[in-house]
């Protein structure tokens, strides 16, 4: 499936049967006398363009572990299965249970994307008698079931993360945990790990407390439902008022982050609607963001930052953290030059604050999408964030550039990220709930874990994008469409156009645009002039808005369906 790999010669008697199939092969040798490596046939996945075959090929291509969990792993789950319950009585002689705080009286709810079943976070807020607010972030207590060093833990560590494809989720942990026992479903008792803050009117932290807990969520809202409930003035019940407090404080937290220089970056977020009967892809839309999206995000960030400080204080060598390096100024040179030449604007890079402010200023009144486009392009000039063990860097290098904080970790999604599982164990040890297992004290082992989860995280992102690309190709198969696009790169042999609605981008070659011999490329102006198919002269420069037709074509070499763009 990868153009960069050479063709591989295999010997088989089934050549006729294999034509038009997706197959798995292994490479055995590459004789010095041959142009091609030699290999052997392993198995067939199915027909090219058949959904299941393409999906499995995509998983293999991005090295995603998708086989069912082994018996060894499943044996680590509670014997009662779906009937497992939180014990009624906290003083039943279990010393660990007695250490948990009973928070079942708190009005807790979760706010997630529609249809979410692996609910790993829930929230509550209430005004205290002194006028301050108590805010709680409650995270699924995955480590209660996933013990360090067990077969289940090793499997989670090796998978590193759950993978989200358009119509499928490949879980890091068995479904019984992810969508049932750990999931903070409403109306049932659940074990959680809670971070409780006292915040003042300006959302400053007065104090913070960490505890293993028992909670009972009152409602599981989708973002939109929560938004409607908050906006409905007739609703004055304590749960809704708690959500209004959360919203008010989250706006203050966000303003503080932005003032400190946090970046509001953009990526083309695309959602593919599936037909519920046939699960064929229907139309594609850009995701809408509501205030409630940002409400959840702010408290998850606050939770992650507070936990990072606590575990670093307790384990300065092995604390599991996440950093985001400042981008090298050279990464932005071309983007800045394009801006200067074509828009008379520039972005500054002295600090993340300077970058954030200058991105806000780059506005084109004639084109409301321009600012988002610029943020997408700026994101690509950035370094990738990465997990690391605290002992590997000096404190100044812990900084998370994009979030503008000095220390950060992932704590809030232990059902679907292994980093969070480790952070939970370290936090439990830091508050004296239980000792930290040897495997997380060993710096060499931690380095291996970190290396693997960074790789798995990257693979999961690529697989998710490839899945969207595949489905957009399928959607386009039956209906070509004309869309707005933006020129984001100009070369002597063509231009790269991004189509925001579908999140696809593609090079439109000069020979498709018009007459190759008439073309003139001005590199310093990021401009390509050519005679189009109708014989009139046209110029394209970076940031130009163009109308393009999208057609779905099959790539001869890889058998992948690609969306090809043509200039209208």
Automatic annotation (TrEMBL):
<dbReference type="InterPro" id="IPR041505">
    <property type="entry name" value="Dis3_CSD2"/>
</dbReference>
<dbReference type="InterPro" id="IPR001900">
    <property type="entry name" value="RNase_II/R"/>
</dbReference>
<keyword id="KW-0271">Exosome</keyword>
<feature type="domain" description="RNB">
    <location>
        <begin position="100"/>
        <end position="433"/>
    </location>
</feature>
<keyword id="KW-0539">Nucleus</keyword>
<dbReference type="GO" id="GO:0003723">
    <property type="term" value="F:RNA binding"/>
</dbReference>
<dbReference type="GO" id="GO:0000176">
    <property type="term" value="C:nuclear exosome (RNase complex)"/>
</dbReference>
<keyword id="KW-0378">Hydrolase</keyword>
<keyword id="KW-0698">rRNA processing</keyword>
<comment type="similarity">
    <text>Belongs to the RNR ribonuclease family.</text>
</comment>
<dbReference type="InterPro" id="IPR050180">
    <property type="entry name" value="RNR_Ribonuclease"/>
</dbReference>
<dbReference type="Pfam" id="PF17215">
    <property type="entry name" value="Rrp44_S1"/>
</dbReference>
<dbReference type="GO" id="GO:0004519">
    <property type="term" value="F:endonuclease activity"/>
</dbReference>
<dbReference type="GO" id="GO:0006364">
    <property type="term" value="P:rRNA processing"/>
</dbReference>
<dbReference type="Pfam" id="PF00773">
    <property type="entry name" value="RNB"/>
</dbReference>
<keyword id="KW-0269">Exonuclease</keyword>
<dbReference type="GO" id="GO:0000177">
    <property type="term" value="C:cytoplasmic exosome (RNase complex)"/>
</dbReference>
<protein>
    <recommendedName>
        <fullName>Ribosomal RNA-processing protein 44</fullName>
    </recommendedName>
</protein>
<dbReference type="GO" id="GO:0000175">
    <property type="term" value="F:3'-5'-RNA exonuclease activity"/>
</dbReference>
<keyword id="KW-0694">RNA-binding</keyword>
<dbReference type="GO" id="GO:0016075">
    <property type="term" value="P:rRNA catabolic process"/>
</dbReference>
<dbReference type="InterPro" id="IPR022966">
    <property type="entry name" value="RNase_II/R_CS"/>
</dbReference>
<dbReference type="InterPro" id="IPR012340">
    <property type="entry name" value="NA-bd_OB-fold"/>
</dbReference>
<dbReference type="InterPro" id="IPR033770">
    <property type="entry name" value="RRP44_S1"/>
</dbReference>
<dbReference type="GO" id="GO:0071031">
    <property type="term" value="P:nuclear mRNA surveillance of mRNA 3'-end processing"/>
</dbReference>
<keyword id="KW-0540">Nuclease</keyword>
<dbReference type="Pfam" id="PF17849">
    <property type="entry name" value="OB_Dis3"/>
</dbReference>
């Amino acid at each position: 499936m990868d153009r960069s790999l050479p063709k591989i010669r295999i010997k088989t008697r089934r050549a006729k049967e294999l034509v038009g199939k997706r197959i798995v092969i292994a490479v055995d040798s590459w004789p010095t006398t041959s142009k091609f490596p030699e290999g052997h046939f392993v198995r067939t996945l199915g027909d090219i363009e058949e959904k299941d075959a393409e999906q499995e090929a995509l998983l293999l291509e991005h090295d995603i572990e998708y086989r069912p969990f082994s018996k060894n792993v499943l044996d680590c789950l509670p014997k009662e299965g779906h009937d497992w319950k939180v014990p009624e009585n906290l003083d039943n002689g279990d010393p660990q249970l007695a250490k948990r705080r009973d928070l079942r009286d708190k009005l807790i709810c979760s706010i997630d994307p529609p249809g979410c079943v692996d609910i790993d976070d829930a929230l509550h807020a209430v005004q205290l008698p002194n006028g301050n607010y108590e805010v709680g972030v409650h995270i699924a207590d995955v480590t209660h079931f996933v013990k360090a060093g067990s077969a289940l833990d090793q499997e989670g560590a090796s998978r590193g993360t759950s993978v989200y494809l358009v119509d499928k989720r490949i879980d890091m942990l068995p479904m019984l945990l992810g969508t049932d026992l750990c999931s903070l479903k409403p109306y049932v008792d659940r074990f959680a790990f809670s971070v409780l803050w006292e915040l003042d009117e300006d959302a400053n932290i007065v104090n913070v407390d960490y505890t293993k807990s028992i909670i009972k969520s009152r409602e599981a809202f989708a973002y939109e439902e929560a938004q409607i409930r908050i906006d409905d003035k007739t609703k004055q019940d304590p749960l809704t008022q708690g959500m209004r407090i959360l919203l008010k404080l989250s706006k203050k937290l966000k303003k503080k982050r932005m003032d400190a220089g946090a970046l509001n970056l953009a990526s083309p977020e695309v959602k593919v609607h599936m037909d519920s009967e046939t699960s064929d892809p229907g139309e594609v839309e850009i995701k809408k963001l509501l205030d409630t999206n940002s409400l959840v995000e702010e408290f998850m960030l606050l939770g992650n930052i507070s936990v990072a400080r606590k575990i670093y204080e307790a384990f300065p060598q092995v604390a599991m953290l996440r950093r985001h390096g400042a981008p090298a100024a050279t990464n932005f040179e071309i983007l800045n030059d394009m801006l200067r030449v074509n828009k008379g604007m520039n972005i500054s890079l002295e600090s993340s604050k300077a970058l954030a402010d200058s991105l806000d200023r780059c506005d084109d009144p004639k084109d409301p999408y321009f600012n988002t486009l610029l943020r997408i392009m700026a994101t690509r000039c950035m370094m990738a964030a990465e997990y690391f063990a605290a002992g590997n860097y000096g404190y100044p290098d812990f900084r998370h550039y994009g979030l503008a904080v000095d220390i950060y970790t992932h704590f809030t999604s232990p059902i679907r990220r292994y980093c969070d599982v480790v952070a939970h164990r370290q936090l439990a040890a830091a508050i004296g709930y239980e000792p930290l297992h040897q495997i997380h004290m060993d710096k060499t082992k931690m380095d291996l874990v970190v290396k693997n989860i960074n790789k798995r995280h990257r693979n999961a992102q690529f697989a998710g994008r490839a899945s969207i690309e595949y489905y957009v190709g399928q959607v386009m198969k039956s209906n070509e469409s004309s869309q707005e696009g933006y020129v984001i790169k100009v070369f002597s042999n063509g231009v790269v156009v991004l189509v925001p609605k579908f999140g696809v981008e593609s090079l439109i070659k000069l020979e498709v645009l018009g007459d190759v011999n008439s073309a003139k490329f001005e590199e310093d102006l990021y401009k390509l002039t050519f005679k189009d198919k109708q014989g009139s002269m046209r110029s394209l420069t970076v940031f130009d808005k163009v109308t393009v037709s999208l057609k779905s074509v099959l790539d001869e070499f890889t058998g992948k369906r690609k969306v090809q763009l043509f200039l209208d």
